[in-house]
Specification:
There is one protein chain. It is built from 6 helices and 7 strands; from the N terminus they run αββαββαβαβαβα. By secondary structure, the chain is of the alpha/beta class. A 7-stranded mixed beta sheet has the order 1-3-4-2-5-6-7, with helices on both faces. The protein binds guanosine-5'-diphosphate (GDP). Guanosine-5'-diphosphate binds next to α2.
């Protein structure tokens, strides 16, 4: 895959350090102002490629919607479901006129029709590679299972596209503290070659564990972004 964004998009050198530095400051209230903007089935249906957006990606049922809801403080903004594979649209939430959160379709659900899998299998890499307003990707993985092959593919796509990527090790409330620490250590070892644009943290939506850290990472991504001229 070629990367059209390498020379054009400024990046945060070390988002996790930024997150740590900001740990004590209050939550950015603008995430609480998030509201549904639109959904899209193709790149052409996306809003103008200007401003800045952060995408949320992950396997179906890992807690992507719950993470967005925890970040925004809205229980039902991104609808959560016990049934995997439901969200088969790109869903955009507007924070303000320049900033968006983007909920990408969950992947890895066996019952999704092959044609739909193919559609998103082509569209998501194209989105990651070409979307200039995309300043970072939050990848949600279940801390009990860590990376599945499709998560590895997603990480590789983000890396190739020089996109800052922050992994949420979600459902941390399902393991003991010691098991969470061991899982995080294993993940750090697996991802040690991904460089300074990669970071991770533990997360639990129902316990709101890690919401401040996630907020700080997004703040750092949004703060450093200077949007290039729109191509739309
Ligand atoms: P999505 O398909 O990735 O958007 O996943 P959802 O956010 O809809 O979550 C799928 C299921 O996992 C729902 O039953 C959630 O309540 C549950 N869930 C999500 N995040 C967490 C978490 O951090 N801890 C626990 N215990 N359950 C979670």
């Amino acid at each position: 895959m070629t990367c059209s964004r390498l020379s054009s998009c400024p990046r945060v050198a070390d988002p996790i350090s930024s997150a740590r530095m900001n740990e004590d400051r209050p939550l950015d209230p603008s995430y609480h102002k998030a509201r549904f903007q639109q959904s899209a089935y193709s790149l052409a249906q996306l809003p103008s490629d200007s401003g800045a957006e952060v995408a949320f990606a992950g396997r179906s049922n890992t807690g992507k919607s719950s993470a967005i809801n925890a970040l925004t403080g809205a229980r039902q903004l991104a609808r959560t479901s016990k049934a995997p594979g439901r969200t088969q649209q790109i869903v955009l939430f507007q924070l303000d006129e320049n900033r968006r959160l983007v909920d990408l379709p969950g992947y890895g659900y066996a019952k999704v029709p092959a044609a739909l899998k193919k559609h998103w299998g082509n569209l998501i890499p194209a989105y990651l590679d070409s979307r200039r307003s995309l300043v970072g990707v939050v990848l949600i993985v279940d801390i009990r299972h860590l990376l599945k092959p499709m998560d590895e593919q997603m990480l590789a796509l983000c890396h190739q596209a020089s996109l800052p990527t922050h992994v949420l090790l979600a459902k941390a409330d399902k393991l003991s503290k010691g098991s969470c620490a061991a899982a995080e250590q294993k993940m750090r070892s697996t991802c040690k070659d991904l460089g300074s644009m990669f970071s991770m943290q533990q997360f639990s939506a129902p316990k709101r564990l890690g919401v401040e850290q996630l907020t700080a990472v997004l703040d750092a991504w949004f703060a450093t972004h200077r949007a290039p001229p729109s191509r739309n």
